[in-house]
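Duplicate of earlier report; Arylsulfotransferase input re-posted below.
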Amino acid sequence: MRDVIAEVDQNGVVVDEWRLFDILDPYRDVIMKTLDQGAVCLNIDASQSGHTLSEEDLAALDSSDKFGDIVGSGAGRNWAHVNSVDYDSEDDSIIISSRHQSAIIKIGRDKKVKWILGTPAGWKAPFNAAILTPVDSKGQKIACQDSGCEGDFDWTWTQHTAFKIDSKSKGDILYLSAFDNGDGRGLEQPAMQSMKYSRSVIYKIDQKNKTVQQIWQYGKERGNEWFSPVTSITEYQTDKNSVFVYSATAGGAFDLSVGAFTSLPNPYLEEFKWGEKEPAVEMQIHGARGYQAMPFSLTKALTE
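Output:
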C-alpha cells in the first residue's frame, strides 16, 4: 500500500524487496492533484468529495510529519498506493497497480521498469521511454494526448487489480485485466459527479514493441450507476473462459448539497463470457459494502 513491496517465503522471511521510492519517481504528483479527496482509499472523507489537492496543499503535506495513508509525494507517503501485485513467472517480474499514479507498471527482479501502462503525463526520463504506446486492432498508433486518446481506447485511472491472464499470454504478448475505477479520468474532476464512470477492461500488450491494445471494456455504457470510486475487481476465470467483475462501491446515493453519500453502496457482480459485451450473469447486492469479491467452489472448499 505504501512504497515498499516485500517478497516472503513460506516461513515469513523476507527474501527480496522492491523499494518503489528508488525504482520510480515518488515526486510525480500529476495524478494526486486530480484525485477526489472524498474517494481516497483508507482515508475516505465523503465531505471532501469533489475537492482536489492544489500545489500548496501538497507542499503543506510534504512539510508535515504525517505519513502513511495521507496522500502526498516523497518516500514514505501515500504517493504510490499499490493495491495489487501480480507475479509473471515468464520473466521473473512483478506487475503492480499504483492507484495514486494511475499506472500499471511491470518491474523486473533487477528492479528495472520494463513498461508503464498509463497516461504519459508527468513521467520524466528514463520512465517516459517505458510508456506503452496505444494501438488499434491493426497495430496502428492511436492519437493520444495526456488526458486521453481518440476512439474507445482509454488508460486506467485510480485502478485496482491489474492481473496477467496467464493462459492467454505467451512470450512477449501479455493479456492483462484491470478494474478502471475512473476517478481523475482525463486528469480532471468532471463538472458533475454524475459524469463519472468506471470500467472493467482487458488489454493486449506487446512487450517487445512496447504497444498496448484495448481489446475489451465494460462499464462506460452503464454510466454513473456503475461507478465505483474505490476498491473493486476484474479477474479472468481460466476454468470457464470468462471474466468476473465486482463493482464494489457502485450505486450509493450521493447528496450534492452536503457532499456525501447518504446510503450504503449497491454493488454489482457480473460474469462475462470471453469477448461478450453483455454479462451472462448479473447480480446487484443492496445496502452492502465490500472491498473485493471472488468466486469459489463450496464443494471444493469443504472436501479438499
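The radius of gyration is 19 Å.

Merging into the original ticket.
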